[in-house]
Amino acid sequence: MFKKYLVVASKKDLAGVNITTQLSQFRPNPLMKSMGNGASFDFYLIDELQIYTESLDLEKINKYDFIIFASKHQSEKKEKSLSVHAPGNWRNADYGGEKGKACRSSALFQKFMFEILMKNREKFNLTGYQVTMEVTHHGPLIDKPCVFIEIGSTETEWNDRRAGFAIAKTIDEVIAEFKPSEYQEIAIALGGPHYCPSFNKIQAKSNIAISHVIPNYVAPITEEMVLEAVEKTVEEIDFAILDWKGLGQADKRDEVVNILEKNYIDWKKASDIKK
Question: What's the Cα-to-Cα distance from 139 to each of 81, 93, 103, rounded to whole Å?
Answer without folding.
Answer: 20, 7, 8
